[in-house]
Amino acid sequence: MLPGFSAHRPHQADATLNGVRDSRLILDHESFVRLCRSRDFLAASLEQKPKLEDAARVAYLSPFHFHRQFARAFGETPHSFLRRMRIDRARKLLAADHLPVTEVCLAVGYESLGSFSTLFRSQTGMTPLEFRRAVRRVFPSARIPPAGFMPTCLLLRFGYRIH
Q1: Which terminus of the chain has a lower count of CB atoms within 10 Å, N or C?
Q2: Distance CA 79, CA 71 (A)
Q3: Distance CA 135, CA 98 (A)
């Protein structure tokens, strides 16, 4: 017998692991599908500033229960998901267009340039201008975005237009 294990509980470590694994599988398939629909609704309505109540209504849940279930299913809160999606869209705009940072800020749903820049830096490690400069060093022309170096199937999947 190994030290630290009793004869009465030979698989104590496995039971703990299974307990953690089982606690994450509390969502049934239908609930997960509704949460995915709600997540898609949030992603599609970034410009309209969706409310938690609206996303919860899509999932047929109360706002409180929706928030908890969303975080459990996807590992982030609905607010964190929206923030991440907005920053991802800002990255694309900064890399592909010559829009001023203020217009990018407004286009992704933020009203304050200062809070947008702070959030962008916390998410990417660079300010919006530093990010744009770094992209321009690698891809000097906005007319030749990273798209020039990626397979067409990936470009179409991520929303690039092929001319």
Answers
A1: C
A2: 10
A3: 12
